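It would be a great kindness if you could assist me with a short task in structural biology. A protein sequence and the structure tokens that stand for its backbone fold form the material at issue. I should value your view on which stretches of the chain appear to form regular backbone elements. The record follows directly beneath this note.
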Amino acid sequence: MTTTPAAEPGPLTPGDFDALDDELDRMREHDDEIPQWEFCEGFLAALVCMRREVPAEEYWPVLLGEDFRPMEHMEFVWRWRRRWQEIAVALDQPVEELEDERTYHPEALDVRGAILALPPEERSEGDLAEAPAYAQIWALGFMYAVENWPQDWQPPRDDEAAGMLDAALQDIVTLTEDDTGEPALSMYAEDGPPSVSEQRLDALAAGIWAVYALRQLWRSLGPRIEPIRKQPEPGRNDPCPCGSGKKYKKCHGAG
């Protein structure tokens, strides 16, 4: 069993994300349905935004399967918790532009850019066509969490708040779709072959603002309060529920 390293301040480093990927690769040796980190990142962002705090024992089986044992993967859990805190802090900052260094940016890989950066002889036929669009896996992870806790994502009664929820989720759903725009730049390398369209970057920007809106919406509303259901009143000739043995009309129903 691995031990948890001492906590370190500051955001996760590229080395931390590599370690997360490595741990997921090891898990995938025993379960080929284990997702990649980008999917986990989207799932995590949705959990941070949710109206209630979902306990770890509830979300681990959904994300990593029933066989996942946190105590056997403590370095993964430690980095997960750091990333959770990092995202939560970023989403609570009063940022007004995405260029603000405090802004949350999804940890997403430009897979198409990585493929195009390879020499042609190292690419397999169909690789580019089958590769996900930039931030598509992140958005799929986010919506996977939404779909698994539908009761926590039900529209609020207030029409304006419900409209905000719908608009924000739609912006993220848009990112689950393919990037069909004309490639204009690479997010994999500054001088790499174009792999991402300007429209995709605009959609990603809308998706990031959507995450901010969802975090603020649910925090302003607070946890969902279940309505108190009033017990049906007994009939006048029914036995009184107090246990006196009298009819309700002769006991607590009198007067």
Remarks:
- The longest helix spans residues 198-221.
- The radius of gyration is 25 Å.
